[in-house]
Request: fold
Amino acid sequence: MRAMPSRILIALTALAVPVSLHMALVVAPTEEKMGVVQRIFYYHVPSAFMAFLGVGLCAIMSALYLWRRERRFDIMAHAAAELGVLFCTIVLVTGPIWARPVWGVWWTGEVRLTSTLILWLIYVGYLLLRENAENREQAARWGAVVAIVGALDMPIIYKSVEWWRGLHPKVLKISGGGGLDPSMERALLVCTITFLLLFATLFLERVRVALLEDEVEALEHAIGRRPAVAAPASGPGGTRS
Amino acid sequence: MSYLGIVALVAAKDLRTELRSREQALSLMVFALLVLVVFNFAFDFTILDFGSLGPGILWVAFIFSGVLALNHAFRIEREQDRIEGILLAPIDRSAFYLGKVLSTVIFMGTVEAVLVPLSAILFNQSITPRLGLMVLALVLNTIGFAAVGTLFAAITTQTRRSEVLLPLLLFPAAVPIALAAVRATSHILAGRPFARYANWIYMSAAYDLVFIAAAVLLFDYALQE
Amino acid sequence: MTANARSAPAAPLVAVRGLVKMYGGFAALDGVDLDIGPAESVLLLGPNGAGKSTFLRLVAMLQRPSGGTIRLWGEDPARADRTALRRRIGLLSHQGFLYDHLTAAENLVFYGRLYGLAMDAGRARAALAEVGLEGRRDDVVRALSRGMQQRLALARALLHDPGMVLLDEPFTGLDRHGARMLQAMLRARLDGSRTCLMVTHDFEPAIPLATRIVILAGGRVALDRPAAGLDAPGLDAIYRGVTDLAMPPPSAS
Reply:
């Protein structure tokens, strides 16, 4: 049974999505230079925020796991990483879709996008590494090491790619500073909140599923260890001479 | 034995083993050379300027042979469960980590020491006036690569698919090193003033510090049961 | 701490209560209670999968328990200074933990220094002499026979004079002669001054070394009795009775 907070969250998200769609596709004015395709911005940018949220959350939960060794921290780290990869993928897909009609190229080698690609690779690696561990504890421990290294690396990667690309003007004007129409800002805000709600909903559901999986495994194990049917006196381990 | 003593002990053990068996040195060298040769055929250097492409090619060679070195560093310990002898010892495991980084840096350094002059000869590039800076760039970036690589290799060599997993994890994580190495090397070869690429040198140094510190703290978790 | 202190209330070196070790859903150890006192020499037997090696590895602190408690010298490894505890334990496995390309002497110097001992060539020589390998000190480990490698591994395990010695299938891969030599070395070195926990399928060379027999089955202690007066056939009979299985054939030829 879902708890109340979870239901409220799902309801809020369900409400927010159509509102954000409306804001992004209808209310916000069409950008003069780029045209309709610019509206991808309202999904591209919040996705990037959520990707970083996922990565940051994963690193924090990983550190907590290493400190406390509690299963729930590991579950949350794993869920955060999965969501991080999901939103990273959205960024990496929407970026080229936006770039192609506007600048004629799929990939602009832009700093943020390139850094996001590297981030994506690291956390896909995280997920694959976990799959290759022998048991859950190992997966948690190894994942935590990689997640912490990855999070520490992000600012350094960003800086190095930025220097690499040189200081020519940014191709994509994403920063919400000067130049953004207030109604565009509003649309962006609404979409960001929607994505945040979406993240939270997916996160809670994912954690819930993982906890349920744990419960199932524990039950299976309990059944296997102590047979419900009456066993002979000399059952496993019961014999004394 | 002191902490640094253990670091030296582990590195010395690796070096002595390598001198006796020569398992690694030759294959690393040949592999790196092969990468150079392949690139030589892939690009036409009568048209292209080595100065612009050379550093990139060199570092591809170093990185690929570096992955081999890292895998080897832990394969010795995995065989016959020798790593358990280390795990049982009353030492700080981060000292073992640093010892492994040291021996890996030495192995990679040997490959670099041969390949850089060799490529200079092959491609008529002069490096002697800037040798000191070249060595600095090589050393700093090799340390950074080995620092993160050793931590990851300690983990991936415990899996069945270590050949795939180590590069998969290490290459993205080592992007700053790759960029810093190629840019710095490129500027040095072109004889540009230090101020032009000082930031790349500082980045390598910062990377080294951050990740050696992180790995020293995290290494035990990589090896625990 | 004398050899007869078996039943004395001296604080046990190893105190285990309700020890559980899970691998995924499988319980390798499912509630083990065991005390090992000073100078005891415990022979741990059991069918494959009974958890013998797992138990030994938990005592060696190579793995962490899933449940229950374990105390070494009264301390909890999860909380205490594990480095200090490691210094008091020596492990001889069927894998020697030896470096193939280093000589016998070099291996001992490496491990000695790893354990914080002031090792030099002279002390390595002395340690090798104790296991009859002095003449082979400059031979690389690859050149040594399996029996010699095990003796070298024994020297390595005892180099730092540990209070507790753990043996994990030490006779594996040894021929009869090699097994006898190792047994003689063990008898000499474990002369009642050290606590010993031995896991093996090769009960024949091991029985004379034991003061106590413990049989694990299904992850629990099935039998725990003194070894006094037991010989190989006697032990075999008891073992069958306990586990309803034939003793697995010894790996020595």
